[in-house]
């Protein structure tokens, strides 16, 4: 099996190195990741400037390729022929914080996997539910071990066309993680605030600030699973159609003046 590994935190992120090393047990691993952090970048496609790819290395010193584009650009370049050997699966991560609920539309980790699905290649996004205020010194080894097991089983089972798996793993030792739960998206609660400041010249500028988001730990959801120290696997697809509304709104007397 040939696995393309990418992320949205940049090629030097420790979670990327841990994931690539773990997945090397399953077959050939090629790493192509952004050269800088693209967290919360969403689904980006760079069309109005050239993209550059260069040889780099991971946090553990192993070989990688880096790109000056977004995570989804990395996947697109690889699948369109930059990587000559056929890619069987794309795995994105390990993101240091959870991507649950509506986070999936913001997350560069998840949207890299979405790009793979557009090209017809199975994909898995992997995130770690580490504390929001802790970025340095995180232990990605348990999550990488679990990710490897999930990738192996998903590859053997075979993912349906158009489906990606969004995996969120509790930040805990392996012996404290109880089980894997198949979940739906939960309800994320955002606490964003607009911070207005002025520069030394008196001109306004703005930050999107506020507290870290929380969520409703409802049973059966990704947020609920993490609260119970369970690994959450949420199958996602890119079809955002609200099918339950088609018949209802079709009953309205829609007309053009």
Care to describe what's here?
With 257 residues, this protein is an alpha/beta fold. The chain has a single domain, classed as Survival protein SurE-like phosphatase/nucleotidase (Stationary-phase Survival Protein Sure Homolog, Chain: A, 3-Layer(aba) Sandwich), CATH 3.40.1210.10. It is 26% helix and 30% strand. It has seven helices and eleven strands. The strands form two sheets. The chain has a nine-stranded mixed beta sheet, with helices on both faces. Strand 9 and strand 10 form a beta hairpin. Helix 1 packs across helix 5 and helix 2 runs parallel beside helix 4. The model has no long low-confidence stretch (mean pLDDT 95).
- The CATH C-level name is Alpha Beta
Q: Number of helical runs?
A: 7
Using the alpha-carbon principal axes, give the shape: globular
At the fourth level of CATH, the homologous superfamily is Survival protein SurE-like phosphatase/nucleotidase
Uncertain regions spanning at least 5 consecutive residues = none
Name the helix and strand elements from N-terminus to C-terminus, one letter apiece. Answer: EHEEEHEHHEHEEEEHEH
Rg calc:
19 Å
Helix/sheet category: alpha/beta
Helix coverage percent: 25-40%
Placed side by side, the strands forming the largest sheet appear as 3-4-2-1-5-6-7-11-8
Largest sheet: 9 strands, mixed
CATH level-two architecture: 3-Layer(aba) Sandwich
**CATH-defined fold name:** Stationary-phase Survival Protein Sure Homolog, Chain: A
Distance between the termini: 57 Å
How much strand content do the residues show? Answer: 25-35%
